Amino acid sequence: MFKKFMLAALTAFSVQAHAAVLADSAGHTVYVFDKDQGSTSVCYDACERAWPVVTNMGFDSEHFGTSTRKDGVVQITFDGRPLYYYVGDENPGETNGDGIGGVWHVINQ
Fold first, then answer.
1. What predicted TM-score, i.e. pTM, was given to this entire model?
2. Calpha distance 62→47 (Å, rounded)
């Protein structure tokens, strides 16, 4: 079963490695994937197991939106880019996924 995260809001969150990154209200960092095609996610199967999609959250900024994935899941976007968590981030404030493969990145605020 895929690990899905639910969150109430995204916010800038300070962490050691970065001045501030986009994170959920619990402080868990969210990421973008360079291989996505605009607002269309290409992260499925093994990719999605390592990088669960951000779903089901309220937002009130023009920067946030949604995109419907081919599996029907509505994924949250930031400036049109789908958002993900990284399973290697076990604690709030961690950014262990930043830079993986040169294609996964935090969103600096």
1. 0.83
2. 28
